[in-house]
Structure formats: structure tokens, C-alpha cells
Amino acid sequence: MAIVEITVIPVGTDDTGLSGYVADMQRILEREGGSIRYQLTPMSTLIEGELSDLLAVVRRLHESPFSAGAGRVCTTIKIDDRRDRPSSMEQKMRSVAERLGGKSE
Question: According to the CATH classification, is domain 2-99 in 3.30.70.930?
Fold first, then answer.
């Protein structure tokens, strides 16, 4: 299981606001159903699943702003693909919380 952090920034739009583009990308993720899990954050989106599925979704997310009229799109991705043992977004957060003495938000 891999975790991808993705930030998609449309360039060449008439508005500095990005929430409409972000909402369009969240709809793409919702349509993926059970093959992936995702979490929107204030600065990016985290996606969890099989790497081949995630890379296909990354492409759809990157293409989304073009469909909405953006003239240019800059996408940044980070991939955490751990294969020595199971990993998940929740497991990573639990691990840090345990090191903080069980305190979590």
C-alpha cells in the first residue's frame, strides 16, 4: 500500500481562488470508490491505495484543471511506498502519537 501527497495548482486562470478546482478534484476522488482512500488537507490531498491505482488517479487530478479552463497546471507529488510492512495514513499518525506518550488530536 502506498500513500501519495498531491498538490495541483492551476495557473493562467481569471481568479486567485482555487476552491472550485479543489472541489472538482475531490469529486474525482469520490468516484474512485473503494480502490483508494483520501484525505483533504489545507495545502494538499493525501491518497492511499495500490501504487498503480494512485498513479492513474494522479493523472486524472492533474488533468482536471485543464478541463475547467486552466491554461497551465503545476502538480507536485510525493510517494511513500513502504513494502517491508503494512502502512497506512492512520498507522503513521498512531506511531507519532505513541512517541508523544499517547497524546493525539
Answer: yes
